[in-house]
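Support case: zinc ion complex. Customer-provided input:
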Amino acid sequence: MSVILGGCATQTDKKPAGVGTYPADECLSCEAIMPRSVPITYLILHHTAAPLPSALEILRGKDPQHKVGIHYLVSDETVPRVFKLASEEFSTSHAGRSKWLSVKSMNQASIGIEIVNLDGNTQLYPKAQIAKVISVSLDIIKRHNIPATNVLAHSDIAIGRKVDPGSNFPWKLLAESGVGAWPDDADVARFKILYTKNIPSNSELFEMFKTYGYRPENSETKTIKSTVEAFQRHFRTSKVNGEADAETVAILAALNFKYRKK
Ligand SMILES: [Zn+2]
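Agent response - structure generated as follows:
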């Protein structure tokens, strides 16, 4: 008797050591896949901005005008399902124009997960769906040894262009479950005292963002505002207004202190 481990295997599922797959509930083919040229070091999360049927249609990459694809999709059904659309050994077109640290286009270095939600900035994510996202993410992170700071929102890597998975996405809960980065409260409190007296200039903020990984094009007020907004969508979701207030800057400083200390 042959047992296929790791969910629905497809013809493209060669399984070199350390790659493998999440045991998905459903497997569909995606036509927008490319060979990888670099190892997998990032996990990027998205919301679909479309209901399940049309999201599946789009993400299978069948539209020649919009060659997009994704590795996994988590549905918003009462009992959410995980769809696998592309084998992890391939890269898919989910990030578009994107940057983080020294990586210029994130598709090659990443695995992407789409989460069905029409707009994660206005619509809530059901608990059961988030539990599935955590399960898929933990599995990917462990198999590829992805660092906490390399689990990112599409909005983190495409500043001013993308807003997903949105400010309702519970990043703190994910971090508590072992998925992604989160600052320590004591560090935030300490830095907040410092920055309440003195908000850094745009060029100082530019450097702080770059230290963490964000890639604003320049230190002009408009660009910094977009970067602050992207940052708040991930790390200070109670108020996403693009304003570098003391709390926002303190969170950024606390993240750099925790993860980027030399
Ligand atoms: Zn996206």
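The CA atoms of residues 43 and 151 lie 5 Å apart.

Case will auto-close in a few days if no follow-up is received.
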